[in-house]
Amino acid sequence: MPISIQLHAIVTWQLFCLKHLAAQSSDADTLDVLDPLHVEVIQQQKGLKQLSLKQALIAIAALAGFVPSTKQPLPGEKTIWRG
């Protein structure tokens, strides 16, 4: 199996897990899904001491231009992947 497919599979799984957990529970630890370095970068970028899964998901999707609204509070898979 080519390395690029393996890498995409890993990233896709992490993003899917992040989206699923953010939608299901707000008390799950961000470090269960994301690498500590990724969490630190997002915290510094957003100026947060604690980072929830929803905040991390929205921060990643914001890189692709996502803005939460009342109709769409969380981004879709395509937007997350672009971020």
Task: Outline the structure in words.
The chain is an all-alpha fold. The protein has one domain (3-82). The chain is 59% helix and 0% strand. It contains four helices and no strands. Helix 1 (3-24) crosses helix 3.
What labels describe this entry?
83 residues, mainly alpha, 0% strand
Report the biggest beta sheet as strand number plus sense, adding barrel if it closes. none
Give the uncertain stretches in residue-range form.
none
Number of strands: 0
> What gyration radius follows from the Cα positions, in whole Å?
13 Å
Give a concise summary:
By secondary structure, the chain is mainly alpha-helical.
Write the SSE topology.
Layout lengths: L2 H22 L11 H11 L6 H10 L14 H6 L1
